Each structure stands twice: as C-alpha cells, then as structure tokens.
Amino acid sequence: MVKVTVPASTANMGPGFDVLGLALKMYNVYTFEEIEEGLIIEGCPEIYRNEENLVYKSFVYTAEKMGKKIKGLKITMDTEIPVSRGLGSSSACIVGGVFGANALLGGGLSVDEMFVIAVQIEGHPDNIAPCVYGGLTASIIEDGKPYSVQYSISDKLKFCALIPNFETSTAEARKILPKVVSFKDAVYNISRVSVLLKALETGNLNMINIALKDRLHQVYRSTLIHECDRVSRICMADGSLALFISGSGPTIMNIIIDDSFPNKIKDSISKLEHEWEIKLLEVDKEGVKVENLSPEVIV
Ligand code: HSE
Questions:
Q1: Can you tell me the distance from the alpha carbon of 215 to that of 182, in angstroms, rounded to the nearest whole number?
Q2: Which residue has its alpha carbon closest to ligand 1 atom 3?
Q3: Where are the domains of the chain?
Q4: What DSSP character marks residue 282?
Q5: pLDDT tens per residue, range 120-176
Q6: Which of 7, 228, 277, 294 reaches 20 to 30 Å from 270, CA-CA?
Q7: Whole-angstrom distance, CA of residue 78 vs CA of residue 81
Q8: Ligand 1 atom with minimal separation from the 11 CA
Q9: What is the layout of strands, in order, in the sheet containing 276-281?
C-alpha cells in the first residue's frame, strides 16, 4: 500500500498566466492498494467513485506508460483542497494518480519523468509543477515537453485565500479570454513577471504590489466571479498587500505579512451575499510526498 500526499497550488499569480505556480500547505492524501479485482474508491462523493475518477484515470494512464498491469485497485482519499475553486484540485488528483502508480507498481520513473506524464494529462504545467516540486515554480513547454524551474520566496510572505461557495469552470474561464493581445500588453506582463519573481524572493512588498498587475486575463475573468470587486476592496482596505485571482478562479488570493489579516476582514466578508471562506495558507516547499505503508512494495 502506498500513501501519496499532494499540496494545493495557486497558479498564474497575476501576470504569470499559464507560467507561475506556488504550492500551498493544504493537502489531499491518497492511498493506493492492490486488490484481487475491480475498483473501490472511498473518501469522496458517490459521483466520483467510478472509472472516470481523475486520480484513477491518471493511475491507469501512468501504469500503461510503464507497461504495468494491476489486478484491482482500492483508492482511499482524504481531501482538503476544494474542487473547482482555482486551488489546483485537478492537478492534485493527477499528481496523486501518477506518483501512486509509479510507487505501487514499481515503475522506477524519476520525478521529472512523472512531471512530464502529469502535464500530458493536465495540458498545462503551471499547477502541476508546484504540486510536484513544491515552492514557487515557472514553467514552459517546448516541442510538447514541459520544463520547470524553482524560485525562492521570502519566508515573511503569507497567503490568505478567499474561497467562495460557488465554482467556476476553467474551460469557461479560458473561453472568455481574447484570442489576440496587443504588443504593449504582452510587454506589460512580461516585464512584470520578471520583476515579480525577484520581488517575491526578496519580499519587497511595494514592488510585489506593482509587479502583480496583469493585462492578459484577470480583467476578463473577474466578470465570472460574483462580488470580486467588493471582496478586493475589503481586502485592500484591511491590509492586503496585493491580491490576484488564484488560477482560473474563483478564489481570490491575498499576499500578507500580518497573521491578524483574516480577523480584520472577517466581519465585512461575512456581510457579503455569498459565503467566502477565509483561509490562511503558508508556502509548501516540499511538493508531493510518497510513503510506503507495506514493506513488500517495490519503489
Ligand atoms: N493557467 C490556468 C488558467 C490555471 O488560468 O487557465 C488553471 O488551470
């Protein structure tokens, strides 16, 4: 039996659309066990307990890549990452399935090889990379192959997510984006991503605030997030240093240094029409973790 623990992640981070990602200390835990036959999935709603389950599909995809077969599989889930909220839940499922298959079936894949497989399943690397490697990552794809590098991030920075009780679909949030952007806007974003990475490393708050601005996606996507402006105004008025839409939304992520921020915004946020969970999150620097729970398993 193997246990795979995967972190949540926040992608894009303002100007770094489809490039930047950051792993956060909020986890999904999956255990994988070979059984005599069939598929048993426990720990998730009934609608996900079938062969369409993304953890299972990613496991099977990886097993096929490795040329391995399994008689039957039991997957048990203990999940913290909310679904369809822009916190990397689908990447967590995929990374869980890929690393679970390799560990349980003794595939001998390297972490980098599993990263490539996970991106093949997901389609873009910005949530997969932090989920696999931990910390702050930037990714590119060249000739269909993903590459990722890690950046340091100042320990003084903390993140506070505002997670609403409604979902947005990534497909919808991608459809709403323009097909073409101006040269000026492209330069606006490229320059900010470059400066943002250094500012996050040094913890230069003033610079982070300026460099987090974006012209490629957030202005369009904010229209899909109810009360986006009101939430942003409350957060900025009460001490958020900078904020951005987490992934394709609807979660709004704040960068803070003061632990009392959640308390300060609590009352105003509770008066909004929708429910917004306020969650203080620290950076996960480790990425996915695999443990053997039975001695006979070959890793
Ligand atoms: N970069 C992706 C997007 C993240 O913003 O659409 C969500 O998968």
A1: 10
A2: 248
A3: 2-151+284-292, 158-281
A4: P
A5: 999 999 999 999 999 999 999 999 999 999 999 999 999 999 999 999 888 999 999
A6: 7
A7: 10
A8: 4
A9: 242-245, 252-256, 158-164, 276-281
pLDDT tens digits, one per residue of 47-93: 999 999 999 999 999 999 999 999 999 999 999 999 999 999 999 99
Q: Which long-range contacts (CB under 8 A, 24 or more apart) does 112-119 make?
A: 114/62, 115/146, 115/148, 116/145, 116/146, 117/61, 117/62, 117/65, 118/58, 118/91, 118/94, 119/146
For 6-30, how does the pLDDT look when each residue is reduced to its tens digit (9 = 90+)?
Answer: 999 999 999 999 999 999 999 999 9
Ligand 1: does its nearest atom lie under 6 Å from the Cβ of 126?
yes
Domain 158-281 in this protein, CATH class: alpha beta
Q: What is the pTM of this model?
A: 0.94
Is the CB of residue 170 below 6 angstroms from any atom belonging to ligand 1?
yes
- Look up residue 289 and give its two tokens: 């973790």
Token pair for residue 114? 């599993």
